[in-house]
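User: My instructor asked us to take a sequence, write out its structure as tokens, and then describe one feature of it. I'm not sure where to start. Here is the sequence I was given:
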Amino acid sequence: MHSIQRKITLYAGGCFLLLFLALLVAIHIEMERTVVPLNESLTQQIVNARSEQISYWFQQRIGEVEMLATLASDHHLTREELLRESRKLEQRRGHDYESIRIVDLQGNSWTPDSNSFSILNRDYYKELISSNAPCVVSNVIVSRANKAEIVVILYRVEPLVHEDAAYIAAAVPIGKMKDIAQDILVYDGRGSLIVNSEFPELDDSRANMAIFTASITGVPGWKLIFQVPKSQLTQGMTKTQRSALMVGTVVGIFFLILVLLLGSSIAKPIQALRQLMRQVEDGDWSVRSNDKRRDEIGELARSFNQMLIKLYQSQQEKKEMELQMIHEQIKPHFLYNTLDTIQWMAASHDANDVVDIVESLSTYFRLGLSSGSQFVTLEQEFQHVESYLNIQCVRYDDILDYELSYDKHLEQHQIIRFILQPLVENAIYHGIKPLTNQKSKISIRAYKQGDQLIVTVLNNGVDIPKSRLASLQKTLRDGKKDRNEEIGFGLYSVNHRIKLAYGELYGLQISSGQGVTCMTINVPLGGDNSCGKS
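Assistant: Let's start with the prediction itself. The structure tokens for your sequence are:
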């Protein structure tokens, strides 16, 4: 047997677990849909900002070289003069330039100490000569002086004034730009400057990396790339899910404890009430529930106590009724033999009236006792009451008449025995007997109405006084008889026995007025009446 406490715990725990898992899935889906793209967007914005910073720094260098070229053109500077100006720029921006040289039309590159070398075969020189661009930027070159990586900005002096000062060649270290590229302090990623479109190949380790790129404006083929482990982009989501799992676990533990306490508060009083019921099953009718709770379980305990009280009262009433019925009935078997002897003696003396009344009395007793059975057929019950009326008509021949009728298809229907005679007796002694100067009639009829059998006992004797009628109706309706109540045992017994056998919807009703008193019995039709047998 599964206990209520276990069921409550399983159902509530299962519902909580399902809801919690659904919440985790919803958090995961929502964060993947919003948080990861947001992290990627923010990271790309940072990379773009660093790319713009590198571009700005490099454009400053180009602008400074352009300023020298403009100065040489505007002021007709000779090579020596332009070298002096370039030396000043080097001194002012010493960390941004490795060297600034002046190139003549023949492709010779000069320095202030007059050392020169030819750049005719350099790719960047050929590119500038073959184009109309004001300047070109070389590929990365390893400096012979300090082995540093540099690029050369070759700028054209236009309009040309002196053939020995045709171009300005500024060697710019790219270390500064690499430092800017690497200075991206987000997640555990690293930035790097890619020149000449030489994008690194992805190996197995880089396959798990998220890569963000941004082009360097003004330097075609240069890119800034930022690599970060993909797990870093979802790290916030993972931490949030882990926190949610921890909080859910703690809440789940407290919830489980509360459910256990709730289940215990419900199951324990029910188990106690079940134990009391087992004691009642064992015959102990004195037990009572002491539960003082004000909830539904407390109401159940109080209803249980009331039920025990009513059942005990009902058992006592049943015992008293059975004892009283035993006293009212004549059971000795020698009575039948005595009546048969009297009938035989009366017949031998031609006393036919004596024979008839003895025969009626014998039939009355035989059918009334009915071998101890609680149920008889409708036909037998009518024979029994007819025997009783025959006897009473001998005594009250001047004032009593009767008629009986019932539908033939109802004659085998089972009803409680001995329920018509008390009604007839009450009609004779309280309705007909007081009228000594007229003959009254008792009419008994049985018929079907819907799914019920209706039996009416009608007399046209004295009406029941209104106050007594109201008292009778209240007693029959409530099913309770006061010891001081004037209602006879017979009427109360009939009503009580019907309700015990068939339920509270059935019983005896009385009406009286305008010279007619009617007692009506309703019992269910159809089905097996064995449920009412003892």
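For the description part of your assignment, you could build on this observation: The chain has 13 helices and 17 strands. Try explaining in your own words what that tells you about the chain.
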